[in-house]
Fold this sequence. Notes:
Number of helices: 8
Mean pLDDT: 78
Largest sheet: 4 strands, antiparallel
Strand content: 5-15%
Order of helices and strands: EEHEEHHHHHHH
Structural class: alpha+beta
Number of strands: 4
Number of domains: 2
Shape: elongated
Distance between the termini: 53 Å
Low-confidence stretches: 85-96
Helix content: 55-70%
Amino acid sequence: MIDLEKNQPKYYAMIDGERKGPIPLEELPAAGVRPTTYVWTAGMEDWEKAEDVADICRLFRVRLHDLMHPSSVAAEQAREIPAEEPAPAQQSAGSLNRFMSDVDLPTLEEIDARENHDNPPANVLPLAILVTLLFCPILGVIGVYYSLQSKKSWKKGEKQEAYDNCRSAKMWTGLGFFIGIIAYAFVIHFRL
Length: 192
């Protein structure tokens, strides 16, 4: 792991049209510096985008690595954290929240709650039939099956199941379409 605290330069950053700083290197993401933010420090001729500054790129790479490999972060934190602090597994989840503090992502429950089940789901049957006839018969038939199941579920009053079947119909129909396009591309390529 790279030691980010050794001889760190202090950076100035243009954030929301204002010059902010000096900001220590490890605090740049928390201050709102993104790859496209212009930064400057002693020794630089002019302001540059953060993505063009080696130290900042390294910092972002380390943070991305830590986000993608939380087990390595947890192991390192276990070595550094005194016994009275929370467990490293709890802190690794917090590190993701610190990095993405400006991103407000909905939970699965919120996504499900947003769905309006008052109207019937989309009718994918015509597209599924078209995919069956023109692109990929096997996957198209699966799309037709789920489209019909969606209609049956809606008529029975099983709204959530109708929407689930509609999602499956869309997925299989889309897969059939793209696989069919790829197959046509191969056929055309090898005929020429």
